Amino acid sequence: QVQLQESGGGSVQAGGSLKLSCAASEFIRNRCALGWYRQAPGKEREVVSIFRSNGTTSYSASVKGRFTMSRDNAENTFYLQMNSLKIEDTAVYYCAADYKEFWFQSCQRKWGQGTQVTVSS
To answer: SS3 of 87, please?
Structure first.
């Protein structure tokens, strides 16, 4: 089964940048979508960015124009470049892959373990 490993979190001052990585343990076949999510203390997990199988990428309104999702298929890795970070971006960030074990099955989601991003003033 596919395993996801995030890296790149840390602490940064407001206005700074961080780049998160999500490495898959193997090539994800029958991929439905790749995504980045975050969960701030006391809040529900929310979507940050999603790359769909049709080739489109969408972003939440709160990060659009500041965050960019990209991927390196050769290395089974996808990224989240975060620029102009704000204090309200502080959260645990999770990557996720939606895929099918077999083509005829429904998509299932695999989560990474999460990485902390802390933005200070």
So the answer is: helix
pLDDT band at 44, cuts 50/70/90? very high
Q: Is the dihedral of CA 48, 52, 57, 58 positive or negative?
A: negative
Structure tokens at 43: 């809040």
Backbone φ and ψ of 7, nearest 5°: -155, 165
Provide the pairing of β-strand 10-13 with 108-111.
unpaired
Q: How far is it, in rounded angstroms, from Cα 89 to Cα 74?
A: 30
CA atoms within 13 A on the CB side of 39: 10
Are 51 and 71 within 8 A, CB to CB? yes
